[in-house]
Amino acid sequence: MSMVLNEEQNLLKDSAKDFCRDNASVSELRKLRDEKDETGFSRDLWQQMVELGWAGIPFKEEYGGLEFGYAGLGVVLEETGRTLAASPLVSTVLLCGSAIQLGGSDAQKKALIPSIVAGELIMALAVDEKSYHAPTEISCQAEKTADGFSITGQKVFVLDGHVADKMIVVARTSGQSGDSNGITLFLIDSDAAGLTCTRTWMVDTRNAANVRLQGVAVSADAVIGEVDKGFELLDRVLDIGRIGLSAEMLGGIQEVFEITLQYLKEREQFGVAIGSFQALKHRAAEMFCEIELSVSVVREALSKLDEGADNIAQLASLAKAKLCDTYFLVSNEGIQMHGGIGMTDEFDIGFYIKRARVAQQTFGDAAFHRNRYATLNNF
User: Fold this and answer.
1) Residues contacting residue 121 through CB under 8 Å, at least 6 positions apart
2) 331-354: per-residue pLDDT in tens?
3) Which residues share a beta bridge with 200?
4) Contacts of 137 by beta carbon, 8 Å cutoff, 6+ apart
């Protein structure tokens, strides 16, 4: 376990921090919201991120990647979390790219990963069908046909779904909803006949969509991994997503804490800075301790992910549960310590509490992961 970033990771972190501060500040997110941008992120900004090599960080060199690991991608996500930078890093690189690299055929890897690395392909992972995260509760049906499969069903909360060129759709090829067996992953073109996608406007101004499939025909080559045995791959990909999202959440948490500390030093009441009040000192100290624990959890999970440890599922749930709790605490305290002005649109602090609430629910909230962690440990 490495709790300290190495020299190369620190250089990447500093580079990402400077880039996000200069090019992807909260004001850019505010602009996307105010203009009701159809894409939901700046394609020019995404191309700049691609040119910096961010889209290729976790992929093997033979496919055009940098092979710098998820710890490397994690420090980038942490910095994007600090400025709430909107991009397809999570949907395309972290989730779909990982699914292809882990479970795709040689032909799928050679065709898709270089396009992701080059920024030419946006992808989305369509999993959930309910208002809460439940990756085994899959009712979307994939029926066997003479040429492949016919898929019918619907998906919700599909990150970047409305702008994706291709989707990885999780469907059931056998069994009943709730079974982990009988789940299969399919690669589908977003313009396929019978597939409709409707964008939803999230409170944090991020992209998500509802997807409906009506008899969407795919060939047998569209399967990623094995038929009926896709849950193991899906669970691994979701864990990668949970750890990566936890890294992004960590960046947001740290930024809220720093903004709040600065405000406590500047805001005066009764002729003194409010940061001198003992009650506020205690609350700030509690936040600091929880953040330090969160840093340790995220660093551990990212490190073990690259090492290929066999307890990734436990670490992913530990990280996501902890970061959900910490982001909830720190975003609430940040708003409260700013007083009434914290809820005004003029101050950026409000954007973070909105992002916190959406991120908490993405890929499972704290309650989901505490239960999962207990189950994994046979409690």
Assistant:
1) 92, 112, 115, 165, 166
2) 999 999 999 888 899 999 999 999
3) 208
4) 129, 130, 177, 178
Using CA atoms, how far apart are residues 303 and 69, in angstroms rounded to an integer?
9
CA-to-CA dists, residue 237 to 6, 166, 274, 363, 364, angstroms: 25, 17, 45, 11, 14
Nearest to 57 by CA among 74, 42, 41, 40: 74
Q: How far is CA 262 from the centre of its chain?
A: 28
**Interhelix angle 349-361/26-34, nearest 10 degrees:** 80
Rounded CA gap, 180 and 230, in Å?
Answer: 9
**Sign for the pseudo-dihedral over CA of 269, 253, 9, 45:** negative
Sequence-distant (≥ 6) Cβ neighbours of residue 58 within 8 angstroms: 65, 67, 68, 69, 70, 72, 73, 93, 94, 97, 98, 101
Residue with the two structure tokens 């001198």:
276
CB 124 within 8 A of CB 158: yes
Q: Helix axis angle, 349-361 relative to 231-266, nearest 10°?
A: 160
Q: State the pLDDT confidence band at 2, using cuts at 50, 70 and 90.
A: low
Tens of pLDDT along 13-45?
A: 999 999 999 999 999 999 999 999 999 999 999
| pTM to 2 decimal places | 0.97
Q: Quote the distance between the C-alpha of residue 336 and its chain's center.
A: 27
| CA dist list (Å): 96 to 141, 156, 186, 319 | 21, 17, 11, 21
Q: Using one digit for the tens of pLDDT, what is the confidence trace for 48-96?
A: 999 999 999 999 999 999 999 999 999 999 999 999 999 999 999 999 9
- Rounded CA gap, 45 and 51, in Å? 10
Per-residue b/e over 217-248, b at no fewer than 16 CB within 10 Å? ebeeebbbbebebbbebbbbbbbbbbbbbbbb
Q: How confident is the model at residue 320 (pLDDT cuts 50, 70, 90)?
A: very high
User: CB burial class (10 A; 0-12, 13-18, 19+) of residue 211?
Assistant: buried
With CA atoms as reference, report the closest residue to 167 among 123, 197, 209.
123
Separation between Cα atoms, residue 151 and residue 149, nearest integer Å: 6
Q: Are 312 and 305 in contact (CB under 8 A)?
A: yes
Tokens of 68: 């710098």
Note the pLDDT of residue 188: 98
